[in-house]
Design brief:
It is a single chain. This protein folds into 2 domains: 91 residues, Winged helix-like DNA-binding domain superfamily/Winged helix DNA-binding domain (Arc Repressor Mutant, subunit A); 36 residues. 62% of the residues lie in helices and 11% in strands. The chain is elongated. It has 127 residues and is mostly helical. A 3-stranded antiparallel sheet has the order 1-3-2.
Length: 127
Amino acid sequence: MEPIRLKSSEWNVLSCLWEESPQTVMQLVARLGQTVGWAKSTTITTLRRMEEKGLVNCEIVGKGKSYTPAVEQENAEISETRSFLNRVYQGSVGMMMSAMAKRQELTKEDISELRRILEEAEGGSEK
């Protein structure tokens, strides 16, 4: 599977579509105008570029267009996470967690959640 590389603007659009789909151009214009302050022209231009890149599907409905995501949210998140880890931490989850722990950016809840995740990954959550 080819890595999915999304720009910030593409994340904005896909987040809306992952939440609710399909959406018309005007629904997306209203939503993105409210959440990120985009003008109608910005939304339309971004949608057109994303359609050309194969990131969204477009269907003509009456006189308007309706959009659905062509990219699965989980695949985009995994691809972006791998890219971030490779760029910043040479692919090491341990280096990232160490950096966060040293800066005391992990709450007790975060640490508990990480323990649970690691136990499940090891198969140690069976009782």
